Amino acid sequence: MASNVDKEYPIPNINTILHKNNRGRLPVVQVGVNGKVVHVLLDTGAGISYLPISKINLKDLDPTYQLQAHAANGTPILFHGIVKLALRMGNRVFEHTLHVSDDKDCPTEMLLGTDFMKKAFMK
Fold first, then answer.
1. Which of 71, 109, 110, 123 has its CA 20 to 30 A from that of 41?
2. Could you give the domains of the chain?
3. In the beta sheet, which residues pair with residue 63?
4. Of 123, 49, 57, nearest in space to 87 by CA
């Protein structure tokens, strides 16, 4: 049964294969947030999306949803709460809830996990 690859895999050209001789490039995209451009890591290994606390307005933080998770290397990450943001990708805008971490625990300005990818790209 033939399928339409573009519909089945809606994130074209974001492929990374790491090798000891060629580290490759991480899948980082630019996303508009509150009128600013933010560099965002698309992480298919992360089940949740998050950003560092320095990237939000503290009055927007909802601290009732604190949780602890672990990075791929086993390092614990404490989340201080959640924030709801409108993310602009191209001509589309997605409302999404992101967890908020300490600055040291987020490798980029924002990390979007599979929770966002399922919502944004899977229909």
1. 123
2. 27-122 (2.40.70.10)
3. none
4. 49
41 near 27, Cβ under 8 Å? yes
Rounded CA-CA distance 39/122 in Å is 22
Pairing, β 36-42 against β 28-33 = antiparallel
Contact 43, 51 (CB under 8 A): no
For each of the chain's 123 residues, which pLDDT tens digit applies?
Answer: 444 544 544 444 443 444 454 445 778 889 999 889 999 999 998 999 999 999 999 999 999 988 898 888 888 999 999 999 999 998 999 999 999 999 999 989 999 999 999 988 876
The region that residue 70 occupies, defined by phi over 0 for left and psi between -120 and 50 for alpha, beta otherwise, is: beta
Give yes or no for a contact between 32 and 42, defined as CB atoms under 8 angstroms apart. no
Question: For residues 81, 96, 120 and 94, what is the CA-based torsion angle, rounded to 10 degrees?
Answer: -160
Q: Which two tokens stand for residue 79?
A: 């989340």
User: If we measure between CA atoms, which residue out of 48, 33, 43, 37 comes closest to residue 11?
Assistant: 43
